[in-house]
Amino acid sequence: MTRIALAxxxxxxxxxxxxxxxxxxxxxxxHLELALSRxxxxxxxxxxxxxxxxxxxxxxxxxxxxxxxxxxxxxxVMGGNRFLPDDxxxxxxxxxxxxxxxxxxxxxxxxxxxIYNAGAPPALFRRQxxxxxxxxxxQRMADAARALVGTHDFTSxxxxxxxxxxxxxxxxxLDIRQRGRMIILEVEANAFLMHMVRNIAGVLMAIGAxxxxxxxxxxxxxARDRREGGVTAxxxxxxxxDIGYPDQFExxxxxxxxxxxx
Length: 262
Known about the structure:
Blueprint (H helix, E strand, L loop, with lengths): L1 E9 L17 H13 L6 E2 L8 E11 L5 H10 L5 E9 L11 E10 L12 E3 L5 H8 L4 E4 L14 E12 L2 E8 L6 H13 L7 H8 L14 E7 L18
C-alpha cells in the first residue's frame, strides 16, 4: 500500500461542505472519492486536513488516501480531474510516508475571508465574496483584531453546535488588508473551531462599520459566551488557503490562492 497526499481546490458555493453525508447531498469528499476510485480501480477513502462547511471554498485543502494501485502521480492528478465536476480540481499528488496524516500531522491552518465593500453588490463572484454595503474602516478592524491574537478560549467565537473538545486555540496572526473594494482577512492558527473565522469576521465588520467600539472584539472574547458574539458572517467569502506540515514530508509549496486573493 502507498499513502498519497493530494492538494485540492474547490468552489464550495454549490457543495454542502466537504464531508460525505447520509442524505446524499452534494459534497466535495463524495465527488473526490468517486473520481479517485475510478482511477485506482478500487474504493478510495479520503481524510482531509480540515472539513469545510456549506458554501466555503478551498485553494489549499490537503487530503490523503492509501492505495495498492500502481499509478504514476500524474495519473492521480490528470485522471482524478477527468472524472471530477468543474468546480473541483486536484492540484498535485505526491507519495508520503505512512506516518503522514492530513489532519493530525498539520501544525497550522490558514484561512482568508474576502469582503467586497461597495454600495452595490458585485455582478461577478457573487458566491466567492461576501458583500458588505456599509463603508468599513479597515484601521478600526485591524486595531480590534489585535486582541484576538494569541492563545485564548474562543467559546464566544465558535458555533453552539461545535463538537471540538476544547475551545482553546492559538491564533498566530490575523492580518487585514485592502485592495480596492476588497478587504481581506488572513487568519492563521494551530486549529479552528466551527464557524470561528466567520464569527470573527462578523465581529470585525460590525466594528469596521462603526456599530460597535474597537474594544468589543476583546469584550466578546472575554465573555466566553456565543450569545455575545453577534452575527455569523456568510460562508461565501471564506477560503481554506494553506495547511502547514513539517518539512520532513516534503510537500509542494504553491501560491496560496488566485491573484485577486493575494
